[in-house]
């Protein structure tokens, strides 16, 4: 698989089979992903890879909390600016519309949306998950490093025939993740990434992208 194929075939998969992901594959992917770039090569990420009984237990605890209506844990970062402006607000709202339409859920059906959201804490059925942490002392450039690292992981997973779903939803129950993984106190959770084999029986949406001239400006006279 070349890089273009990996980029185009990666999507946020929300339905996995329960086929196990071999540990040696995950080790190979994470060994290669360590070559992702970071400012001054500080590699400000720390991943916990969780499978088997510990993952089953974490899913159970998280789902029970969400079903019980437990409040979200105190936020350590805002997932989106509260006053998201156009065009970002429109793109977000379009994504929500497309996702719920594909699930056959009316936008105003809050209960059905909640039920669909619960899939997040079941890792959408995935048998493996990566939880990506960053030191609390890091700044915005290091958060960008984390993004590059995570995309590298997700593309390498494609090269192994695997799919993934990055999930900030896990930060909403971060205390349960911390309890399960006991990271050192200086680390904070950014997101989880569900990892596994795509279940073809689960319908999915293919998100679109803004036209190039909305997000790229070419300057110069190159032809
Ligand atoms: C940092 C990050 C956090 C995300 N969090 C969630 C999440 O909590 N739950 C979810 O279902 N999808 C989540 N997504 C997936 C996005 O919705 C998805 O990447 C986006 O809609 C584009 O679709 P695509 O990845 O299928 O191309 C997240 C993606 C990123 C990059």
Automatic annotation (TrEMBL):
It comes from the Bacteria. Residues 9-197 form the Nitroreductase domain. InterPro entries: Nitroreductase, Nitroreductase-like, Nitroreductase/BluB. The keyword Flavoprotein applies. Pfam families: Nitroreductase (PF00881). Keywords: Flavoprotein, FMN, Oxidoreductase. GO terms for molecular function: oxidoreductase activity. This is NADH dehydrogenase. It comes from Mycobacterium adipatum.
